[in-house]
Amino acid sequence: MYVNVPLEERFPRPSVMGVVNVTPDSFSDGGVNFDPGDAAAAARRLLDEGAAIVDVGGESTRPGAEGVSLDEELRRVVPVLEALQGLPLSIDTAKSQVAARALELGAELVNDVTGLRGDPELVGVVADHDAYVCLMHMQGEPRTMQAGPRYEDVVDNVIDFLDDRLSFAVSQGIRENLICLDPGIGFGKTVEHNFELLRRLDELTALGRPILVGISRKSSLGKVLGDPEAKAGSTAASLGAAVLAYERGASILRAHDVREHVEALTTARAIVAR
Ligand code: HH2
After folding, report:
1. What is the pTM of this model?
2. 254, 257, 258, best to mutate for ligand 1 pocket (most atoms within 8 Å of CB)
3. Range 181-207 average pLDDT
4. H/E element holding 205?
5. Domains, the chain, ranges and CATH?
6. Any catalytic annotation for residue 254?
């Protein structure tokens, strides 16, 4: 057992979380890193480019995605984690056995898009390892979440949800200072819901925990540029959104194009921070 420093010290604002999807079907990099050697090389490159941590995922959560079995998810991510031992890694999973294996192999952070609602064993695994955790908001589940998402007030609803999940995690033995929160851009949300969450991000930071934002390449960015059928957005559009999210309080930006994000956010920080 090791003791982690508070998440806000480990990931000073702004930090970049690089993304490596070991999947055949992720919306932006599906198939590119399905081979474990390619995935490990990609992760090393993202760390060289300045990522504070690399998020390794074996299950796509894009709209419409079907889940994968435990065996298949382990088969995808374990060789990659083994090849990267000793490097700063996060595991993007909702499965307790995948998280446990990743933490044994040295991963620091569990990134659970279900906010600890998917697998009842996961909260205990995170607590036992004293690991960092990201709790994300999602309405519905990936297969159906983009079929007419509705909210009374998207920001108020997301705040209530994240507050509840934060209390739950702490009640189950996870130290509060190891937790970050994520509004879940694109997870059961329209373009306007996503943009309202970013516009009012200061209301989420008032929860008192660092906020992680993942908008990199998401379809809202393609849609706002005029393609209503867009499945992804460009790097330039991602950078515009990331800089704005940082300026409104985001701590960690989850991104595919790490070098560009580090350059943009370093510049933004030099302008904003005194
Ligand atoms: N977005 C994706 C996956 N995991 N985790 C957090 N905390 N926040 C996010 O916004 C987030 C996430 C979706 O992006 P990607 O991993 O590129 O695609 P896919 O789910 O298709 O693998």
Report:
1. 0.97
2. 254
3. 97
4. helix 201-205
5. 13-273 (3.20.20.20)
6. yes
